[in-house]
Design brief:
This protein has about 290 residues and is α/β, with parallel strands linked by helices. It is built from nine helices and eleven strands. The chain has two domains: about 200 residues, Spore Coat Polysaccharide Biosynthesis Protein SpsA, Chain A; about 70 residues, no CATH class. The N and C termini lie far apart (about 45 Å).
């Protein structure tokens, strides 16, 4: 089954994203249903965005559940065959959807397709070194994984897989997309990038910059938590420990260095990395949340 505007919904997980999400929504065809899962639990935001856009429905989370759980909530609230997951700081080019629709008719089967980031220095995909994957500037090409800020899921196929859960909600932030793609490939599903479909990812602008410091602390905590959890889940505790050993040593050294040089900003960053990593290693959940006002 090929993709069309009638069997496609867009899912956007937002958190303090009022300043940027309108550019994202405005770049999407008004005929396409959009579901916004707002982790800020902002009633005013919901009211404003639903009044402004006829094709948008906003669902408030009672708490900040993160990206994976937010995506899952969006999937549960649509009845379409395809879900296009976007971050609020992604802007589609005018023909992005059309190129995906056209390309889907040329692909025999796929679990996920994704547009390509317009900044070639920051590709939104990874190749499998053990496969004959290569870049094609015109035709869809297979990849190992795609970044979570822009990925289109073939729900019709994925719902038929046995015991396949979409996003692992243990991940609050980071690597939930790598985990999803890895499990997808284990089930024999293909992942494609559509090079004619382009997007602009503003990068790091999904959350209002007035919360930048708290968000940066959260990013460092969760990056290390997720890195250990991902490797433990797929390769075992010992392999995960070996993979993060350099990160652990580096974070310790830099924490003490910035402690004795009175650089409180950098010290706090590496303290959060240590805390995230240690909590993951002892089996604690990804509990840390950025401290922002409501």
């Amino acid at each position: 089954m090929s993709i069309s505007r009638q069997n496609l919904s867009v899912i956007i997980v937002s958190f303090k994203s009022d300043h940027v999400i309108h550019r994202c929504i405005s770049s999407i065809d008004k005929k396409i249903e959009i579901i916004v899962i707002d982790n800020s639990n902002n009633i005013k935001f919901k009211k404003n965005i639903e009044e402004k856009y006829e094709n948008v429905r906003c669902i408030l989370s009672t708490k900040n559940v993160g990206m994976g759980a937010g995506n899952n909530a969006g999937i549960k609230n649509i009845d379409k065959d395809f879900a296009f997951i976007l971050n609020p700081d992604v802007i589609l080019e005018k023909n992005s959807i059309d190129e995906i629709v056209n390309a889907s008719k040329m692909i025999d089967s796929f679990g996920v397709v994704a547009p390509i980031c317009d900044n070639a220095q920051y590709p939104n995909y990874k190749f499998d070194k053990n496969k004959n994957h290569k870049f094609d500037p015109i035709n869809p090409f297979k990849v190992k994984s795609v970044d979570g800020y822009s990925m289109l899921l073939n729900l019709k196929r994925l719902r038929l897989l046995n015991n396949f859960n979409f996003f692992d909600e243990n991940f609050f932030l980071y690597l939930e997309n790598d985990d999803f793609c890895k499990r997808l490939r284990s089930n024999g599903e293909n992942i494609y990038v559509i090079p004619k479909s382009k997007i602009c990812h503003l990068g790091g602008e999904a959350v209002d910059l007035k919360y930048e410091y708290e968000v940066e602390l959260s990013r460092n905590w969760h990056w290390m938590w997720s890195k250990f959890y991902f490797n433990k889940k797929h390769y075992g505790y010992l392999n995960a420990t070996l993979k993060i050993l350099n990160n652990l040593i580096s974070a310790k050294i830099k924490f003490f260095y910035y402690l004795i040089t009175f650089n409180s900003y950098k010290r706090k960053i590496y303290q959060m990395r240590l805390y995230g990593l240690i909590n993951s290693m002892i089996g604690n959940k990804s509990f840390y949340r950025p401290k922002v006002d409501n």
